[in-house]
């Protein structure tokens, strides 16, 4: 049998105040609610705890035997609540990668108040965020929403990151201010960071299928510095987000892709039962800064249009 802490707290209050009405005032509930809680506790324990005397509610022998343990239960619960409420814990935000646009959004939020404490973490995206959010290891995660989410997960659209072409300065397209996506048809785009099963690999796979591009994800993936250096040294093409802070390299140029502009959709994912005091402010901040998709100029896969329409708290 599991005891209801609310009924135990009512028992202690009635004992100390010798009155159901005084206990109701202390607990900020009605006298009827106190009576119901005591009746439930007596039913759960299978014994009578009070009898009425000239001085009000008095303990039975069983009530006196239970009182010590009841006070211990309530005291321990109050200590636990006090520790948790007073515990300093920064808001933990998963940005996927510290070079991505999500970091700038978190930095902008952090600058809105002096007393905001945030821990930034990185991960492998939606694949890990589902578990870390459920366990409370992180409070929020920037991901591309894909597939069916668990019932307790909520998200708000955060931003669209325009896709840019990354090429060597010696490439024939290097002098262009923008490159039409149709001009890239039939090309192979090298993206060694497209981990199998990741939401970004799925996005670029859908982009390739829509515009006749072959996405080459062969690795190994040695990191951003080596990726940029390899692009600079050869004929390979790469894709990056406009908001990605790439390592500088003199031999590389980054050119917007247009007509239409492919944009990578990123959302802020969180657990509906997470009550961190700063989380709601972050969700509001992200929602207020979000700019909707312009379907006349921008492109996302059909699946992302549906996900964006379904997003919200």
Automatic annotation (TrEMBL):
<keyword id="KW-0804">Transcription</keyword>
<dbReference type="Pfam" id="PF03466">
    <property type="entry name" value="LysR_substrate"/>
</dbReference>
<dbReference type="Pfam" id="PF00126">
    <property type="entry name" value="HTH_1"/>
</dbReference>
<dbReference type="InterPro" id="IPR005119">
    <property type="entry name" value="LysR_subst-bd"/>
</dbReference>
<protein>
    <submittedName>
        <fullName>LysR family transcriptional regulator</fullName>
    </submittedName>
</protein>
<keyword id="KW-0805">Transcription regulation</keyword>
<comment type="similarity">
    <text>Belongs to the LysR transcriptional regulatory family.</text>
</comment>
<feature type="domain" description="HTH lysR-type">
    <location>
        <begin position="1"/>
        <end position="60"/>
    </location>
</feature>
<dbReference type="InterPro" id="IPR000847">
    <property type="entry name" value="LysR_HTH_N"/>
</dbReference>
<keyword id="KW-0238">DNA-binding</keyword>
């Amino acid at each position: 049998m599991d005891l209801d802490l609310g009924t135990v707290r009512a028992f202690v209050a009635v004992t100390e105040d010798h009155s159901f009405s005084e206990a109701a005032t202390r607990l900020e509930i009605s006298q009827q609610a106190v009576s119901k809680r005591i009746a439930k506790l007596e039913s759960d324990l299978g014994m009578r705890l009070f009898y009425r005397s000239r001085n009000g509610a008095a303990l039975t022998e069983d009530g006196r035997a239970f009182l010590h343990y009841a006070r211990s239960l309530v005291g321990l619960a109050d200590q636990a609540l006090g520790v948790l409420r007073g515990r300093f814990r920064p808001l933990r935000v998963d940005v996927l990668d510290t070079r991505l646009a999500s970091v700038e959004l978190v930095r902008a939020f952090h600058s809105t108040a002096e007393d905001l404490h945030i821990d930034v973490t990185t991960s492998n995206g939606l694949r890990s965020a589902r578990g870390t959010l459920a366990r409370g290891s992180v409070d929020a995660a920037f991901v591309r929403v894909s597939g069916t989410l668990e019932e307790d997960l909520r998200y708000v659209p955060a931003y669209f990151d325009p896709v840019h072409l990354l090429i060597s300065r010696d490439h024939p397209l290097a002098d262009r201010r923008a490159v039409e996506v149709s001009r890239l048809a039939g090309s192979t785009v090298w993206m060694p960071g497209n981990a199998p099963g990741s939401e970004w690999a799925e996005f670029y796979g859908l982009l390739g299928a829509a515009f006749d591009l072959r996405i080459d994800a062969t690795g190994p993936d040695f990191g951003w510095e080596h990726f940029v250096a390899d692009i600079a040294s050869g004929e390979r093409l790469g894709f990056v987000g406009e908001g990605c802070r790439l390592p500088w390299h003199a031999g590389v140029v980054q050119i917007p892709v247009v007509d239409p502009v492919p944009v990578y959709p990123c959302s802020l994912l969180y657990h509906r039962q997470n009550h961190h005091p700063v989380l709601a402010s972050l969700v509001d901040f992200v929602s207020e800064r979000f700019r909707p998709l312009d379907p006349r100029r921008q492109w996302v896969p059909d699946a992302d249009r549906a996900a964006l329409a379904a997003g919200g708290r």
